[in-house]
Design a protein that fits this description.
This protein is α/β, with parallel strands linked by helices. It contains 21 helices and 27 strands. The structure holds alpha-methylisocitric acid and iron/sulfur cluster.
Amino acid sequence: MGLTLTEKILKAHVVDGEFVKGSEIGIRIDQTLTQDATGTMAYLEFEAMGVPRVKTERSVAYIDHNTLQSGFENADDHRFIGSVAKKHGIYFSRPGNGICHQVHLERFGAPGKTLIGSDSHTPTGGGIGMIAIGAGGLDVAVAMGGGAYYITYPKIVKVELTGKLSPWVSAKDVILEVLRRLSVKGGVGKVIEYCGEGVKTLSVPERATITNMGAELGATTSIFPSDETTREFLKAQKREDVYVPLSADPDAVYDEVVEINLSELVPLAACPHSPDNVKTVEEIGELKIDQVCIGSCTNSSLMDMMKVAHILKGKTVHPDVSLSIAPGSKQVLNMLAQNGALAVMIDAGARILESACGPCIGMGQSPNSKGVSLRTFNRNFEGRSGTKDGQIYLVSPEMAAASALTGYLTDPRTLEGTFEFTMPKEFVINDNMVVPPATEAEMDSVQILRGPNIKPFPETAPLSETIECGCSLKVGDNITTDHIMPAGAKILPLRSNIPAISNYCFTVCDEAFPERAKSMGKSIIVGGSNYGQGSSREHAALAPLYLGVKAVLVKSFARIHRANLINAGILPLTFVNEADYENIAQGDELVIADVRKAVTEGRTELTVVNKTNGREIPVLCELTGRTKDIVLAGGLLDYTRESLK
Ligand code: MIC
Ligand code: SF4
């Protein structure tokens, strides 16, 4: 029986566990990446493990998220990350060099390699045939130290592409169509593998747009084959040496098949407040807009920017619209400057932002009250833009640029003519903003520069014999990590300071939560399905840990967040009968008797007794050998410190 591409790469990297669907496997990690909003914690954790130099083939630390420096905090964090990188063998991509995923694809990614990154959009690397997975910072720290990365051996979904995109229909519309069909939980426990004749018609940046936003499906990752198009891209990046051809065997067996005829796709938009709330322009109807933001790791390639420049050429942004553009990397920005497209954008009235995440993570450009904002980004969760009642629509660069001119949501197919982008034979290459690490001889003399905002990892404790405490919060379905631990320009500077950032935990849902949790001392959170979807931020587990949360009981979890809870030593529980969700109210007193004994013995079914209404609620605690030991130890840090000794 033939193998899928995913299986081929996983098989070549597996170091622990059995190759059986649904069971846990440990894989060797070739490359890691971090960004600054998750990086400080990841490097504090790496330091705590006591490994002098990273053991990966290539580890890169990017500065791209917290680039608005409205106080000393972000600048201090950048300095800290730069110094840790230098000391411990990590390449440092300085602020201004671009968004981690865009730069990694251009300069470091390689087909057939494994990459984990402390950012959920790490699957961008799947665009050149990598197994690239988003993970919590602690998992990335462990991988840098040479430890395996554990995933559930995934189901593999084949997306069979046929046909060719019509003019003004974009790679973004492909992934929006996949989201429309599969939903934000449709990819949980799965890898999405793209195959078929249609693959050949898509360039590397287009493929990367699709794998990037596969994160919104909740998928473990997404991947394209590595073919002649990949080789051409790598050659143009002067990296042809890392090219290897890779594809699934013709008789590979998949768990599910989705068919998409690219020729039939039309321009789409994800409406507020979920990336799977996808509609056509016609279905949305007339929509006056206030803002357009173009950029983010989903749509900031040279190809995307050239399309935008073509549409804007000789025109003026509508008087009621603010248009901002953030090219994804220094390479992209530089090429736009050299070929004149930047001048076209400036001339049309675009507000040019630095090459960074910017508005995507609420670092500036929040829309006006109730403002309608079209964004080429990947997430439109409530409040993420920084404006609580902002109405965010996720669209392609073509739709964004066309609408910026008309002031209304506009189907780009109404534009005259067509636009064919030819990939450059050579990109402009200058890696002068990537600082290499110190040599082994020099590394001891590198001083770590720590600012006063950097506080240590919160205290952990081994799992207690019995958990007896109140329910401090009850929330519904599809809670995102942006609800649990909001981001934005005000809160992001506190990413290295868990005590301070904890004061914002869950405040999107309930302003009183942090104080209430603190005064309760210890507590349990109850939630619905797909709890913790979205970002990889481990702060969404570390803040609850700091606030005394001992267990989270929900209908189902998103993958990375569940792993982050385990890493923080918080017990992840799911209802056996989802209807029991109704049998717990906020404030109820709950007991999980002899929980330590049960977990130690590997019992997966536990009972939560609701002392307030007398009900006994069966719950699942599905921990394997390793995750069981992590929870018993009080988290991954203690567990790893022991096992690396
Ligand atoms: C995001 O897009 O939500 C982020 C900000 O990039 C996060 C990481 C973070 O919260 O720092 C992610 O996607 O993992
Ligand atoms: Fe940055 Fe936005 Fe991409 Fe996250 S999704 S890495 S915030 S650009």
